Amino acid sequence: MKDKISKLVNVYKKYGFIGFVKKCYRYVVANYLDKVSLSVFLFPGKYRKIIKDILNGKYERVILWRSSFGYNVPLFQRPQHIANNLVKNKSLVLYEVTTMTDKVKTIKKHHDNLYLVNFNNILLNKILMQELSNIKKPKYIELYCTDWKLSVENIQDYLNKGYKFIYEYVDHLSPDLAGTKDLPKNILDKYNFVMENKDVYVVVTAKELEEDVIRKRGKDNLVLSTNGVDYNFYKKWEDYNLEKEYLDIIHNGKINLCYYGALAKWFDYDLVKYIAKSNKYNVILFGIKYDDSYDLNKMDEVKNVYFLWSKDYQYLKYYAKECDILMIPFVLNDITKSTSPVKIFEYMALHKGIVTTDLRECRNYKSVYIGKDKKDFLEKLDKVYKLRNDKEYLKLLDKEAKDNDWSIKAKKIIDLVKKDEK
Prior knowledge:
Blueprint: H1 2-31, H2 38-42, H3 44-55, E1 61-65, H4 78-87, E2 91-96, E3 107-111, E4 114-117, H5 122-132, E5 139-144, H6 152-160, E6 164-169, H7 175-178, H8 185-196, E7 201-204, H9 207-217, E8 222-224, H10 244-250, E9 255-263, H11 269-277, E10 281-289, H12 293-296, E11 305-307, H13 313-321, E12 325-328, H14 342-349, E13 353-357, E14 368-371, H15 374-386, H16 391-402, H17 406-418
Parallel strand pairs: 1-2, 1-5, 2-4, 5-6, 6-7, 7-8, 9-10, 9-12, 10-11, 12-13, 13-14
Antiparallel strand pairs: 3-4
């Protein structure tokens, strides 16, 4: 309860009174009212048949993705990409959604062997688990380390039913990421459980996280699978009309510098102000205000900085493509040194020059230029701008993007579990 109250306080700060009321209403509907579905109650046989038909398909294993991240959300990131590519590795993926983000009250086919499931629906979940008990193929539950919904008891219940546990350790565990005052108990409990049980499969996305696991439990059942990019998605372009507001900005004579993603406490607002003050760049920001840090830093008052809110994943690339340089201006702390930024690989696929602060994971790529401090960051921007038409640099960006396709990341997870499958 303490975690929920803390979360509510942060939601109020982030969205204001009206936004708070709307969010609370959607939360109550998704987590309480949608637990019961009249259609499943009246026609349980219909849903049992649907589930049986799904389970009678062709696949080698079943993976229940049990983190309620949502599927059709503006931040189309690792969960959705990994799910899509697990399917390509002969897996049936039942992906948990929440009706706060997805209009799926029961179960919906997204494409072959990927189904969006409302596990919160009590009767549907009961039918699903009954039918899954008849499946003799390997079964897994997979979730994010930041999931605060499922308890250790819930995980143990799955294990008792013959499931294996895949734990995606993707971030430093921090209240700032959870959006709470203190780290939620379920998050910390699951982390401790994983570190005490070597038979849990652990997927880490950064070297810092890998080292933490090795210190706690060694290298058993561990794989490093960083974030990646849907390489082919960035090879497909269609006509898309950008808004006049955006066109007016990018054609005002300055160099266009862009960042997209969360605007949060780990974003280096002082660095952005320093860049903007040079008067050489339009600093264009797309994304969401993850907390109140953007407003506290009074970024709307900073000349040459343009915050244009979030864009749908399908169309964001059209905006980023028009910019000259793409950046990641993060402060250096426990969160960012453990971060494998999804956007860095998307930047590569866009064939745009990349400048970041001195993030540990970003040092691994030759196409990324690192700014050690504010002055050096500005110098690296100048250097990368001069490379915007350099054939060798563009070739390097393309190679590093291709080397980090999501298909490679998902295969590492499958290879980890497949060694134990009979």
